[in-house]
Design a protein that fits this description.
This protein has 213 residues and is α/β, with parallel strands linked by helices. The chain is 21% helix and 27% strand. One of its GO terms (cellular component) is lamellipodium.
Length: 213
């Protein structure tokens, strides 16, 4: 969890991965109780599901948040991690940028984003035709968290042969004309409005999709 304090009152944020196992969820709940007792119940504790990270949580990571696939309690947790890993980077600033791991296959690329491909020998920074300059700069920053090796910048359409080999070969991916154009439109925002507590409250829903309606 992450903790921020000010004026004697703290805030603890518990992150829960979308593929967290039951024993991991139970362990995190147990740790939350211990922390609550340690600080006499003063900090406000908030559970944050994966993909719903609010800006004030993202700001703690300063644009370097990386979400890996897998977990420590899996039956095969003693096996080494994969030699090739692919990360999709989204965001244009320190309060919005995060990288999340996706299967290392070409069909998971997207012309509108930046991807980091880490292999045993090098690290590629793949820039889709529709990504913005801010997205590229933030991707360079988070890529340093993923790999300390020198980054090879690859522009969509100019990939070296080894890039496709690392992804298991070329394959169709999301690269429509609309995705290849830089999107300068203001990002839409969704708010949940409720007066069930007797007060009208508007709460923003980060990274929303249709399931949030």
């Amino acid at each position: 969890g992450a903790e921020r304090k000010g004026g004697g009152l703290g805030l603890r944020l518990g992150l829960q991965g979308s593929q967290a196992s039951q024993d991991e969820i139970t362990a995190s709940a147990y740790q939350a109780v211990i922390l609550d007792q340690k600080y006499n119940g003063e900090p406000v504790q908030i559970r944050v599901p994966m993909g719903k990270e609010p800006p004030h949580l993202m700001s703690i990571f300063k644009g370097r948040m990386v979400v890996y696939q897998g977990g420590t309690s899996r039956a095969n947790n003693l096996e080494p991690g994969p030699s090739t890993r692919l990360f999709q980077v989204q965001g244009t600033g320190a309060n919005t940028t995060k990288a999340f791991e996706v299967p290392a296959r070409a069909n998971f690329l997207n012309s509108n984003d930046v991807f980091v491909l880490k292999t045993q020998s090098c690290c590629y920074l793949w820039c889709g035709k529709g990504c913005s300059g801010d997205e590229r700069e933030m991707a360079k920053m988070v890529a340093d968290t993923i790999s300390r090796t020198e980054k090879q910048v690859v522009v969509e359409g100019q990939e070296p042969a080894n890039f496709w080999v690392a992804l298991g070969g070329k394959a169709p991916y999301a690269n429509t004309k609309r995705l290849q154009e830089e999107n300068l439109v203001i990002t839409p925002r969704l708010f949940e409005c409720s007066n069930k507590t007797g007060r009208f409250l508007a709460t923003e829903i980060p990274d929303f999709n249709q399931d949030d309606l």
